[in-house]
Amino acid sequence: VQLVESGGGLVQAGGSLRLSCAASGRTFILSISTMEWYRQAPGKQRELVASITRAGSTNYADSVKGRFTISRDNAKNTVTLQMNSLKPEDTAVYYCACASSGYWGQGTRVTVSS
Q1: How far is CA 56 from the centre of its chain?
Q2: Phi, psi of 87 (to 5 degrees)
Q3: Distance in angstroms between the alpha carbons of the first and the last residue of the chain
Q4: What local confidence, expressed as pLDDT, does residue 98 receive?
Q5: What is the pLDDT of residues 13-41, one digit of tens each?
Q6: Helix (H, G, I), strand (E, B) or coil at 30
Q7: 10 Å Cβ neighbour count for 92?
Q8: Whole-angstrom Cα distance, residue 100 to residue 51?
Q9: What's the average model confidence in pLDDT over 66-89?
């Protein structure tokens, strides 16, 4: 299984970005698994940002609730993270993952300027 993220970049505080994760390979495994977005800021540990189950139930870190939305399209093997009202503290490398199965993307960098 390969996970490839896209959509990162530089944005001003208050702006929006949409991250996408495209899966290829044995995607059946992903279609029945919870998918996650993690992030790792410079000098900090990797943290879970959002997750979505096979059935579409979602969970968010307190720091992004109300601003970020995770979604998935099992038919297209994609997971998306819509990020609104971005803050400088959202600056990090964002990773798409199916952590329970040990699959991780290479990450996409998000930089939010103040």
Answers
A1: 15
A2: -120, 155
A3: 37
A4: 93
A5: 999 999 999 998 888 777 788 999 999 99
A6: helix
A7: 22
A8: 12
A9: 96
Residue 91 is predicted with a pLDDT of 98
Q: How far apart are CA 82 and CA 97, in angstroms?
A: 16
Q: How confident is the model at residue 4 (pLDDT cuts 50, 70, 90)?
A: very high
Quote the Cα angle for 3-6-12, to 5°. Answer: 145
Q: Are strands 35-40 and 47-52 parallel, antiparallel or unpaired?
A: antiparallel
Measured distance CA(41)–CA(43) in Å, rounded? 6
Q: What are phi and psi of 25, to 5 degrees?
A: 95, -135
* pLDDT computed for residue 107 by the predictor: 97
Beta-sheet pairing, 103-104 with 108-113 = unpaired
CA distance 99 to 34: 8
3-class state of residue 21 by DSSP? strand
